[in-house]
Amino acid sequence: MLADPPSIPHILTAAAGALLLACAPSPAPRVELAVLSDGAGIVPLTNDRGLTVELTTCRAAIADLVLTTSGEFHDRSALISRLRRALLSDAWAHPGHAAGGEVIGELPGRFIVDWCGGDGVKLGDAELTVGDYNGADFTFIRAAEADGLPPGDPLIGHTLELAGAVTVDGLTFNFHALLDQDDGRALIGAPFELEVDAATTATLGLQLLTRLPDGATLFDGIELSADQPQLELLPGDDAYNRLVRATQSHDFYRVQPRP
After folding, report:
1. How far apart are CA 181 and CA 93, in angstroms?
2. Is the sign of the CA dihedral 157, 41, 115, 111 positive or negative?
3. Which of 9, 73, 159, 170 has the most CB atoms around it within 10 Å of its CB?
């Protein structure tokens, strides 16, 4: 006895399923690129008040680096960039200025980035979908022993540590600051320009910039006194508050592709 032929609805269902399988997009190719701490942005500077600063310690506790496409256009005009910072000088409560784009690459995890003492240290391998990248985001955290720091390390419980030499009125003295950002605060839209294809082999350097191409510096607006040889910047100090705001701005970070 012959089996009944398949009904027309069954034939149509099978045909539709086959068509969907045939038309389903294949996953976009992905590549892994190493992310390094890159100290190239740490340079001696003279701020807008005539203060000369040379950092010897510059570390930050961050988490979950993500790499994006189609974010806000980062202007290349020095004049426009400087005017924007002047207008927003005390209004950086929204770091990144809504510059976020679509996330198509990531390096999850917690990291201690040491720009002065750990240049070139590998943070991990980021996984990137093939595409055109133009931004990077991460979150600020509070450092802990679990991040690989020794007991008693001054960064524990804080977000950033900055220290170095300051010259004012011909006198040079040391300064030190432990900066606290809100745990989990997002920094959005640091510049990252790279077209990634399946053959890309670049490494990615995460940089902190002490001086920008337009002449602005991380220490602009800060005035210090040489009344004491070792100056600790404390919460509530004007210099401390200005550094906290400056280190929230995406202008002072960059992911730099390196061969």
Report:
1. 11
2. positive
3. 159
Mean pLDDT check: name the lowest of 79-88, 98-107, 206-215.
79-88
Please, which pLDDT band fits residue 19 given cuts at 50, 70 and 90? very low
Cα(74)–Cα(84) distance, integer angstroms = 12
